UniProtKB/TrEMBL annotation, chains A, B, C, D:
Name this protein carries in UniProt: 5'-nucleotidase SurE
InterPro entries for this protein: SurE (IPR030048), SurE-like_Pase/nucleotidase (IPR002828), SurE-like_sf (IPR036523)
PANTHER family: 5'-NUCLEOTIDASE SURE, 5'_3'-NUCLEOTIDASE SURE
SUPFAM superfamilies found in the cross-reference section: SurE-like (SSF64167)
Cofactor(s), names only, from the UniProt record: a divalent metal cation; Mg(2+)
Reactions this protein catalyses: a ribonucleoside 5'-phosphate + H2O = a ribonucleoside + phosphate
Gene (UniProt): surE
Primary role: Nucleotidase that shows phosphatase activity on nucleoside 5'-monophosphates.
Subcellular location: Cytoplasm
Record text on cofactor binding: Binds 1 divalent metal cation per subunit.
Homology family: Belongs to the SurE nucleotidase family.
NCBIfam families given in the database record: PRK00346.1-4, surE
Top EC class, one word: hydrolase
Length: 250, 250, 250, 250
């Protein structure tokens, strides 16, 4: 078995080393990761400039690009003779739950694998006092072994969030909802010019039954199956039924 | 009515001016857009540094950030006294269909509005010989008027792609599938160092019935309803039914 | 006569437009400037990625790079059939005097021209209440006309700083000295992480006779001749005289 | 003795480790270096955003900024209780000679120290077959010991280039001259858009007696004293003598 590991915290982060080590017993692990932190670059692809790929040691590479760039270069260049059987992204330093998966480079790396038809898992460590990456490494290996054995439906991936304290077990969940809170903080630089930071206050979650947020809050690891296809089937149906009323006059 | 317009091609692109002009008859149009091209930054949020907001003229602003930054600053800062009734993103220079919506800054700007509970439309112009933005502007105004009147379900948006020649009409569609083609091109810089460009060859689409790609290929404007929530309900159900077999031994 | 104009505040800044207009009476003016603000990039050359050159209108170009990139592309690509007779950089929004010329993109653009053997002038507008770029434009045209007529010694350029109020006249000066003041300001981002801004407090200048700073403080435009060659001749002589005492044992 | 070490190839480059190890016998070595390669950023200062300072281990720090940022943070923040007695920058991967010192981040780091009144040395390894950083480390320690003992005149620094083969000895030199060669290479990205790389062809040097280039070509280490003050005294004198003819009519 061949496993490609990437992340968005960068090659030198602790989480990716714990992850790569944890997966070693399952097969040959290749790491292709950004050369620096890339948090919240989401599914960015670097198209306007070429990328540099640096071989650091055997099966270990750094890229001056995004997580999505890394998975693309990993599959199409580094491992092109024998593509990976599984892509695992993480362990992210911090949660990737609910609506916030849209911003996540860790989840996007897994989506890129799904676009290329390869099963994928994204693993994130929710922060809290005295957390350690070790339990998340164990969870990742457990789920990776099962996915390698059973596969995943085409166009899907597993999004995993591990609670700060050793998890009580797994829960299959849906994405939670974040309540909108104050999103912009005004600041002044030392030269007196106004500037704005995105995202002040802590996110507030709605305690929806079955959500990833609730599972983690209750001490469980959340495993949320995600789909590549974002078509809203229900709305599509109702639009089709009412199509005439949307017509654009010639 | 108050409409916030943004894009990912940047404030100085032609598409955003055509769009802002087309929407003027529907209400007060505010533009908050990146100060340069941001293609394929996807849903990136700038969290590691503060943003600069430059007022260019009445209700026109540039931001040194991403499309998602622009929508956030637009709603939470520029228009904070009276948030917009609608967010329209575009007109993008080039298609945003199928799996590629994951990479799209134009679509992400609309998703950011949806996260904040505001109806949103993303508009893209498929390229081709002798195309013009004018028909796309007309389509955008038509759909914007209907969405302002009828609303959209929470957590959804409309993703619109306008064909290169004047469209024959609208079609409600689902996201198409792109077939995987050669993704990385090796290059050598003038100093002899190897580097890699993401994405050579033209994308090849599977001609799925009902897809955005097919509608556009047949000369129609595609309108695809998208959802914020990427949970795969079917896979979630089957995982829940089989949960015991996924258990992690303590 | 052919004149190449560039700057580091970017194509859309006011200063470069005043400068280009002021020089129109002297010859054919070409503008190749960064597509966004590049302050304090100094003499950076973009070597790790290729540059995009966008033609905006006749003899007007934007580059996604630094001032030095712009001068290089301007001379070697845009104007390669007939290189310019003069390069003028500015009008910078803010002073470039004393030690600070080392940080200045405006001055570096002029140095790049000097490296390529073309006479060059860097023009900066010192800020102050009610300043206007108009007098600086007039000064630039006056000096440009004289340099086009008389030339400059190889490897030199003129660094011009115009005071905030209409100047009383020109003074030829040397670079002043800035007294070291507190250089780093600690800040905390909204997520509680510490970060550091370079450069708090206002610079304090030593009131050296003959310095650029003093000329501007007294209401004159300072014109400082700069040289490309930074060899310290005096120190070189004394090192050579004492060379034996520096020998490295084999 | 306290020594601050920085560079522009980044914290993870080999040259800075060889340098820091070589200087350990002379005093307490502190390293504050960029978290990634910064070649050719020259004397850039990061003013538009705050910087992150990461402590990697005892007296070892990485900064998400330029070499000049690193020296500023090193002196004003990291070592602010007891500023360094000497700043050494390098060992750069590649030469920094002649006019090219204007582009060099390695030399700029040393200039920043000079601006702050601290003696500084910039060390670069000229590339060639079978080169090693070890001789350059030895040269750096030798010169650092002498500069710590004897000091350097205010506003000066030593720019050192070590040849690819073990050096025959030291030579005190002046900056050489590069002959202008073809500077821009046109390229086409995989999507067919034209772009431009700065700097094709190898630089060609004029074989000036006493130049750094000649010393290195003949197998010696070149040591060039540089000055912060770029005023051209000779031109200033002749301009002053002829000042009336430059007058700007009111």
């Amino acid at each position: 078995m061949r496993i490609l590991v990437s992340n968005d915290d960068g090659y030198h982060s602790e989480g990716i080393h714990v992850l790569a080590d944890a997966l070693e017993t399952l097969g040959e692990v290749w790491v292709v990761a950004p050369d620096r932190e890339n948090s919240a670059v989401s599914h960015a692809l670097t198209l306007h400039r070429p990328l540099r790929l640096t071989r650091l040691s055997e099966r270990r590479y750094a890229v001056d690009g995004t997580p999505t760039d890394c998975v693309t270069l990993g599959i199409c260049q580094v491992m092109k003779e024998h593509p990976p059987d599984l892509v695992v992204s993480g362990i992210n330093f911090g949660a990737n739950m609910g609506d916030d998966v849209h911003y996540s480079g860790t989840v996007s790396a897994a989506f890129e694998a799904a676009i290329m038809g390869i099963p994928a898992i994204a693993v994130s460590q929710v922060l809290g006092e005295h957390f350690s990456f070790v339990p998340a490494g164990r969870v990742a290996r457990h789920l990776a072994a099962l996915v390698l054995e059973r596969g995943l439906p085409k166009g899907t991936l597993l999004n995993v969030n591990v609670p700060p304290r050793p998890p009580k077990g797994l829960r299959f969940t849906r994405l939670g909802k974040r309540r909108y809170t104050e999103g912009v903080v005004e600041d002044t630089d030392p030269r007196g010019r106004v500037c704005y930071w995105i995202g002040g206050g802590d996110p507030v979650w709605e305690p929806l039954p079955g959500s990833d947020f609730l599972a983690v809050a209750e001490g469980y690891t959340s495993v949320t199956p995600l789909q590549l296809d974002m078509t809203h089937e229900g709305l599509l149906l109702s639009l089709l039924q009412d199509a005439a009323s949307w017509d654009l006059p010639a």
